[in-house]
Amino acid sequence: MTDPTPVSTTATTLHVGGASPYDVVVGTDLAGHLPALVGDAAERVALVVDTRLQPYADALVETLGEREVLVFAVPEGEECKSVEVAAEIWNALGEEGFTRSDAVVTLGGGATTDLGGFVAATWLRGVRVVHVPTTLLAMVDAAVGGKTAVNTDAGKNLVGAFHEPAGVLCDLSYLRTLAGEELVSGLAEVIKCGFIADPEILRLAESVEPGTLDVDDPVLRELVERAIRVKIDVVVDDLRETGGRDGHPGREVLNYGHTLGHAIEAVSGYSIRHGEAVSLGCVYVAELARLEGRIGPELVQRHRDVLGRFGLPTGMTGPSFEDVLAVMRVDKKTRGSQLRFVVLDDVARPAVLAGPSEDNLRAAYAALELGDEAPDQP
Ligand code: GLY
Of 254, 274, 333, which is best to mutate to test ligand 1, by the most ligand atoms within 8 angstroms of its C-beta? Predict the structure, then answer.
């Protein structure tokens, strides 16, 4: 097979160990790495692409030489994550005689990655998939770790499978396709990684002039690589989220800020960006940890400062506590009847807080509404 596009030499390769090892390649102009990740055995490639990114598909297709490429342009964002869209692709794969040695490639944000990963996980009980994430959120979170899903009437991401990719290409050039707010939204997940595992991420985020952080900035690349390393370390230890070791929450740690974040997204009808909801959720769990006597006010303020300096929200007036609590109680992160939150005992010292008092839950929420520290409970 001819693989015509040269491979970039400035890429960083981050290895993901475990039972199905793979590489995450980070850099710019990485299309030339695709054929090696797709593998020689694949005669056909199903390229699942967010319809808005179709103009970028040709450059990837060109690298695939003589392989037959079936392009599936899917609806933008979460719209694509339906059983119907997956079924359309399954039917087409059937018609084309897509075999177990063929491969799926995704090009898009986290929703495209989730859908394409789900199709790859389910077609013939699992074919190779390579993710080419185009958003910061997808690079540092969705594309790594093998979670795939579609949405159903029962809820978001409730139907899915663990299916690790054969490789991930994080080509930072795609970040130019993002509106500024989308880049900032992705930074919430990066900063989350700083709080749960890598203080250097916080120091970098605190040192950079927020308005100047663009795609060519080496600091952005370092932030991305560090956040991906955090995710890799977590998923290698606890791929299936069954629990961590030595008091570490395991993969659940990635949910820092997400219990409230998901509830705010749901109550807002998904009109708020994921990263903005996570930002609010991180401040919320920091307030909760303070109220539980785990951290001091300085660390809560550090959350507000570092998230806020990028324009991420750290306070809000909005849905009532009762509405948000009701959603949190049915979230899939709840186990049994107990609400669970990942909290900190310090930077990079995460723990699970199960069943906090409703008084503290409410007081931490009030602090978000005040945009300030919550008063202590009597
Ligand atoms: N997005 C959270 C996880 O991958 O577990």
Answer: 254
Same domain as 208, residue 171: no
Per the structure, the complete domain to which residue 155 belongs is given by: 5-177
Between CA 55 and CA 199 the distance in angstroms is: 38
Domain count, the chain: 2
22-73 pLDDT tens trace? 999 999 999 999 999 999 999 999 999 999 999 999 999 999 999 999 999 9
Distance between CA atoms of residues 134 and 183, nearest Å: 11
Q: Based on the domain organization, do 152 and 223 belong to the same domain? A: no
Q: Which of 118, 147, 177 is the last residue of a domain?
A: 177
Q: Where are the alpha helices (DSSP H) in the chain?
A: 34-38, 57-63, 83-96, 110-122, 136-137, 180-196, 199-207, 218-237, 258-267, 274-291, 297-308, 321-330, 358-370
Q: How far is the CA of 233 from the centre of ligand 1 (A)?
A: 12
Single out the residue in 177, 207, 242 at which a domain terminates: 177
For ligand 1, whether the C-beta of 251 sits within 6 Å is yes
Tell me the pLDDT tens digit for each residue of 172-200. Answer: 999 999 988 999 999 999 999 999 999 99
Q: Are 171 and 233 contained in the same domain?
A: no
What is the pLDDT at residue 9?
57
